[in-house]
Amino acid sequence: MREDIREQDRNIRKKAIIDSAEIIFYRKGVEATSMDELAKECGFTKRTIYSYFTSKEEIYYEVVIRAYQKMNVQISTEIKDHDIVSEAERLKRIALILIDFNQTNAAEFKAIVDFENKDIDTLLQNEIAAKCYEEGQFLVKVLTETLKEGIQKGEFRDDLDIGQTFLAMWSALLGMAHLMNYKKEYIKRYLEVDVYESVDYLFHIIIDSIRKEEK
């Protein structure tokens, strides 16, 4: 019983450290954040933090893993919806989840994007960083399998390059997420365009480019 309480207390403290790290990393960036600043943010001493984590990098990877897992749960729940009638609609729902996740979980989405800009070969040499990479592959798998399913069902072109199409979709969504983070009000005021409507428009352009022509 006592051991269970200790473990519960340990998990609460670890979560508190990760919560604080997510906030300060988003505000200042990982490299610019010192352990002293993190300790001040979470209200623990550096010694306490090091009793749970070996380094700032390990804490960062824990932030990334949690962000991926949270996003993956939302995607997994959505793609199991039996009301989805086509693979095109499934792609659209995934796209909207990513855009919405960016808006409602900005710090976590930024952690994911920053992680994906790092050198993969170096990351895979670190066990916990490799876990981040593994979690990140969930989205790749879901999107590529949806594209393959669309080809098999005759929705998408037979000559579709899965890898190139995934890259194009991911790049477009990241670009849209960036605009929503930094240019949303500018776009609304000067272009008189609703950004969420732009997401829908962007999606239709992508789907039209990969849809199989009816004979």
TrEMBL record:
Gene3D superfamilies: Homeodomain-like, Tetracycline Repressor, domain 2. GO terms for biological process: regulation of DNA-templated transcription. SUPFAM superfamilies: Homeodomain-like, Tetracyclin repressor-like, C-terminal domain. InterPro entries: Homeodomain-like_sf, HTH-type_TetR-like_transc_reg, HTH_TetR, Tet_transcr_reg_TetR-rel_C_sf. Residues 11-71 form the HTH tetR-type domain. Residues 34-53 bind DNA. One of its GO terms (molecular function) is DNA binding. It comes from the Bacteria. Keywords: DNA-binding. PANTHER family: HTH-TYPE TRANSCRIPTIONAL REPRESSOR SCO4008 (PTHR30328:SF54), TRANSCRIPTIONAL REPRESSOR (PTHR30328). This is AcrR family transcriptional regulator. It comes from Anaeromicropila herbilytica.
